[in-house]
Amino acid sequence: MSIFFQAGIYTVCCISDLSPPDAPLNAKHFRSIKVAQGIVSREIEGPMSAIEQGEFRAAFVVFAMSTLLAPCAKHDRVSDDYMHAIQNPAQISSYDWTEYVLRRLLDAVAKLKSDIANNVKVPYIYGCSLFLQVHSFLLELSLYSMLISIYLF
Description:
Layout: H1 3-13, H2 33-41, H3 50-69, H4 83-86, H5 97-117, H6 129-152
Helix pairs in contact: 2-3
């Protein structure tokens, strides 16, 4: 696993300098991507309260996971896999988000291979396909650089 990928996931999911409340949030409130998007995009006048900070932190993680890092197959539904991790916003940074994203990606790859082997139509691929694209690009770039250095020297 790339240390840059791990650091990037940690940065996205572990927003610093927030002081969320110690009381747990109602995770059921965050099971809709639209609800999370609404919380993330709402305008706040003045400094955020501790409750607003906690809601924002949980909603941001849900939105980032559900739309970019580990999208689920269900429209506007959030995976139950990490609901326990967002219940207490102060503890969000203790969850291994990198492992979760990579596990979801590997599960998606295994499902894709199985579907192709069984001649099942594959209308979409879930998981973080952006990670695969960046990883593939970096591999190609390093191979290209290696070939250039061999050719020039």
